[in-house]
Write a structure and sequence with these properties.
Blueprint lengths: L1 E5 L6 H8 L3 H30 L4 H5 L2 E12 L2 E12 L24 E5 L2 E4 L5 E4 L9 E5 L7 E3 L5 H5 L2 H26 L1
Helix pairs in contact: 1-5, 2-5
């Protein structure tokens, strides 16, 4: 199981607090409100950026998210406040999360190639000629793609794709996520500081 975490860095925060001449108590209150805002908003921002690149549902992304609170990790103008870690953990997903086709074997032993649209607008074949669909027999109706490890009937293994952490660490996605968070976090801090002032 792979994992990844997102950090939050509110740049120019000290300038905002100095400009408004907030007291230490007011500063702490503004930052605490901002941290609370981010706890609610960041998962949505992350999901939005991942879904722009990958053909995945928001539910699948949110299921991999764990939010952890820590103290004394963010210091703004000498005020230490609670911080947040947005940690994503997850195993590589099966192709059924990415509009796999076909969704079940064709009748009458008709040949087929299993494919999935992992990145938006780019459908790719999965595995080789040894790939086939089979119900794993766990009580569900979905078929999963399996691949033989050789020419023999067995052993076989289920085909998996990328994990949620891997999607987030894609260079393009991660950069866009960080830019979104840094920009919006500063706006939220400015908004909260203005309200307190």
């Amino acid at each position: 199981m792979s994992s990844n975490n997102i950090s939050i860095n509110i740049e120019n925060s000290e300038e905002i607090i100095r400009t408004l001449c907030l007291t230490e108590s007011q500063m702490k209150k503004a930052v605490k409100r901002t941290v609370s805002d981010l706890k609610q908003r960041v998962p949505g921002w992350i999901s939005e950026k991942v879904m722009e690149e990958y053909n995945i549902k928001k539910k699948d992304i949110r299921e991999a998210l764990k939010i952890k609170s820590r103290t004394t990790t963010v210091e703004i103008s000498g005020v230490k406040v609670d911080s947040l870690d947005f940690v994503f953990k997850g195993r590589p997903l099966t192709p059924i999360h990415f509009k796999m086709k076909p969704s079940k074997p064709y009748k009458h032993n008709r040949k087929y190639i299993v494919s999935a649209e992992i990145k938006k607008g780019s459908r790719v074949p999965l595995g080789t000629k040894h790939t086939f669909l089979q119900n794993p027999g766990n009580g569900g109706e979905r078929y999963l793609p399996f691949q033989r490890k050789g020419d023999a009937r067995y052993p076989i293994k289920v085909i998996r794709t990328v994990s949620t952490p891997q999607m987030i660490t894609n260079d393009k996605v991660r950069e866009e996520i960080q830019q979104k968070i840094d920009s919006e976090a500063l706006k939220r801090l400015r908004h909260n500081a203005d309200e307190i002032f």
